[in-house]
Amino acid sequence: WGLLLFTVALGLGGLAAARCPGPCICDNLRSQVLCLSGNLTAIPTTIPQLTKKLDLRGNSLTVIPVGAFLDIPYLTHLDLQRCKVERLEEGAFRGLGRLIYLNLASNSIALLYQESLDGLSSLQQLILEGNRIEEIQPGAFGRLGSLTVLDLRANSLVYLPDMVFQGLQVLRWLRLSHNALHVLGSEAFAALPALRRLSLDHNELQALPSDALARLDGATRLDLGHNPITYVAEEALAMASLKHLFLDHAALQDVAPDAFTHSPQLRTLDLRENQLQGLPPLAGAGGLARVSLAGNPLLCSCLLRPFHDWLARSRVQAEGSCTAPPALRGRPLDSLRPPEMRCSHPLPPPSPTAPLEQPRVASSGQCPQGCACSPDFHHGSCENRNLREIPRGFPGDTRLLDLRRNVFKVVPAGAFPSLKELVSLHLQSCGTEELQPGALQGLKNLVYLYLTDNHLSTLAADAFKGASRLAYLDLDHNAFTRLPVGTFQLLPNLISLHLQHNAIRELGKGDLAGARALRWLYLAGNAINRISPTALAPTKMLEKLHLEGNHLVEVPTSALWGLPALSELKLSRNPVKHVGDGAFLPVASSLQHLYLDNMGLERISPGAFAGLGPKIRSLFLESNKMSNIPDMSNFTGLEILNLRDVPFHCDCRLLPLRRWIDKLNLRVGATCGSPAETQGVKVKLSTTFQTCPGWGRGKAGGASPDKTKTTSKPSKKKRSGKSPARGFKKSRA
């Protein structure tokens, strides 16, 4: 009987081993299968049925078909990171009722269909970070009743419709950071009764989405940092359980005294790195224990005294230091005494009928009919009112004016009289065809101007006359065929210029004349086929140049001279076939991020990267046609290198690249395209190089070729001191 049992056990073990797919490692004791970077184009069909953990990272699956995992119903953990997944078919995960963890990060998914995630009734964590998700169809999460964490960071979401997260009854953390969100439906977060933490940082929100947030009665932490929010309005935040609010690194210039009245549990308020010169006493925030104002240009004059007195009375700890006046520069807020906070002119006595901690400044005008004005917020809005002419009569102290989605074909001269305090002007989607000379006359404090999604094809040289402080100008999605010549002479403080998705064909000499402070220039999605050697000369402070999706046939090397601060250059999706010697030499001392992907590149000259070295942090060369690349051994600071979908010719001429990849602690995705017998094999795993002269000498540590394989005999395991399976798992190249 003992012999019989041993024979049966041996047979079962052999069966399990036979079922393990070729490029995978099967650990039957742990019910775990690893198929890392195995060039798989489909889910293997011979995975042991009792597998609980399946790791498929780094393959090329593209589509997850219907019922892809029906044969392995006991899965609890599934990792599909970096698998080039573009589509999840409806019903892709049916049969996985035990799955609790699903990682789909770093793929190319653009749309979540209604039934894409059906069958995952036990799922607790869903990670979709780093995809291209632009749209979520209603009901996509409707059957994920056990989900507690949903990670949608670093996608392309612009808008969240009402009830988009319906069905997530036990969700506790929703991560939406690093998207492009600027519109949230008022019911976007409805039906999330268990949510405790919401991350909305690093988006494009220009105001607090008050209506949407009011649905989150149980949330205790809200991250809104790194959004271009300029003001926080009165009663803007009504979240009954909120304890921690992060509004750091935004564009805040003012906060209403009663902004947080309806968030009585608020304990910490992070306002670091904004543009606040001070704050009013915060009425109703009785539970507040800490306010961080570090990195703000605080003016510690008598105007700040009411806030300072309120801090003392309410026993609120404040972080931050004075920027002015000079006598108090650098002094921490908590070290100031009221007599030190002086003004050069005496203030009028407070009104006996107004609360001392909430001083009001009388508005200098009425609000136009049909619009909404907030005296404390200094905010006027006539959004989507079907207006045909720009209204007049806003209070003179208005700082943010929202006129989006009206019909203003022409913005006439003097369109904004008596608005000398205006900082931010929104004219998106107004069908605007012309800005007349002097249209912005008198807006001497204007910093932000949004003209996105209009019909502008040219700008008069005097269109920006009187708005010399303008720093952020958005002109994307218009009809420009060339840059508006002469316009930037009047904008000496312009920092950021958005001209994506126009029809610009050329950057000519003098087009950017006057833009001496420009740091970020966005020109993606135009039709640019030529850049004059002196076109960028005025922009000596330029840090980012985005030229992806244009018609350039060569690297604009001559135009890059004189840009000593350029750190990011995007040339993706241009039809450049050859990169010549010294192509990036003009910016070699500053360049950190270089995008040369999806160009149809056929050849890169040996000296193409001359001058580049340790400063390069990321290099994108994926989806091109060259068969070899130059020596990059001096790129010692690389954090990201993408060589996927490049048909490398794996012969001895590629040996330097193979040796270099061996030394990198990065997953680069380099694959052989030829000769035929190596096609589809990872460069790192190809045995072709073992016949090359000097192969053994080139191996790190003098290892023999045998030890690069993922399988070995037990005796070799003992000599090497580590398991070959473990070595395979740790490999990142």
Beginning-to-end CA distance, first to last residue? 50 Å
- Outline the low-pLDDT stretches: 1-18, 345-364, 698-733
Mean pLDDT: 85
What is the molecular shape?
globular
Into which percent range does the helicity of residues fall?
under 10%
Main location: secreted
Family: Belongs to the small leucine-rich proteoglycan (SLRP) family. SLRP class IV subfamily.
Protein name: Chondroadherin-like protein
Keywords: Disulfide bond, Extracellular matrix, Glycoprotein, Leucine-rich repeat, Repeat, Secreted, Signal
Written account of the structure:
This protein is mainly beta and 733 residues long. Among the domains are: 20-195, Leucine-rich repeat, LRR (right-handed beta-alpha superhelix), CATH 3.80.10.10; 217-335, Leucine-rich repeat, LRR (right-handed beta-alpha superhelix) (Alpha-Beta Horseshoe). 8% of the residues lie in helices and 17% in strands. It is built from seven helices and 45 strands. Strands 1-2-3-5-7-9-11-13-15-16-18-20-21-23 form a 14-stranded mixed sheet, with no helix packed on it. A 13-stranded mixed sheet has the order 25-26-27-29-31-32-33-35-37-38-40-42-43, with no helix packed on it. The longest helix is centred in the first third of the chain and has 18 residues, at 2-19. The two termini are 50 Å apart. Residues 1-18, 345-364 and 698-733 have low confidence and may be disordered. It comes from Thinocorus orbignyianus. Residues 331-343 have a biased composition (Basic and acidic residues). Its main location: secreted.
Q: Could you outline the blueprint of secondary structure elements for this entry?
A:
Elements (H helix, E strand, L loop, with lengths): L1 H18 L5 E3 L4 E3 L18 E3 L7 E2 L12 E3 L7 E2 L12 E3 L7 E2 L12 E3 L7 E2 L12 E3 L7 E2 L12 E3 L7 E2 L12 E3 L10 H4 L7 E3 L7 E2 L11 E3 L7 E2 L12 E3 L19 E3 L5 E2 L5 H10 L2 E3 L2 E3 L47 E3 L4 E3 L18 E3 L7 E2 L12 E3 L7 E2 L12 E3 L21 E3 L21 E3 L7 E2 L12 E3 L7 E2 L12 E3 L21 E3 L7 E2 L13 E3 L7 E2 L13 E3 L19 E3 L4 E3 L5 H9 L7 E4 L20 H4 L15 H7 L3 H7 L3
Keywords: Disulfide bond, Extracellular matrix, Glycoprotein, Leucine-rich repeat, Repeat, Secreted, Signal
Protein name: Chondroadherin-like protein
InterPro entries: Cys-rich_flank_reg_C, Leu-rich_rpt, Leu-rich_rpt_typical-subtyp, LRR_dom_sf, LRR_TM_domain-containing, LRRNT
